[in-house]
Specification:
single chain, mainly alpha, rod-shaped
Length: 84
């Protein structure tokens, strides 16, 4: 006869052990899938925030460029009026 330690499925609580292991594996797989979905969602959110930040930076840089160009043009016209 086999010893219970050599045959884990021969014990009195073998069915309960199998059910408990299956439940544990199911819980762990559920947590793993949940973590994967969470990582994917927050990765997409981070990408959208990075895109928004980049667009705002480009808009601010363009506005400052237009402002500097307008100021230079205005100063050039004022210098021309003062010389004449």
């Amino acid at each position: 006869m086999l010893f219970p330690s050599l045959c884990p499925f021969c014990g009195a609580f073998s069915a309960a052990r199998i059910v408990a292991l299956r439940a544990t594996v199911l819980v762990l797989l559920t947590l793993l899938i949940k973590a994967k979905l969470r990582i994917t969602a927050f990765s997409a959110l981070g990408f959208l925030l990075l895109l928004l930040q980049t667009l705002l930076f480009l808009a601010a840089a363009g506005a400052l460029g237009l402002l500097a160009g307008g100021a230079a043009l205005y100063a050039n016209r004022q210098r021309g009026v003062a010389v004449a």
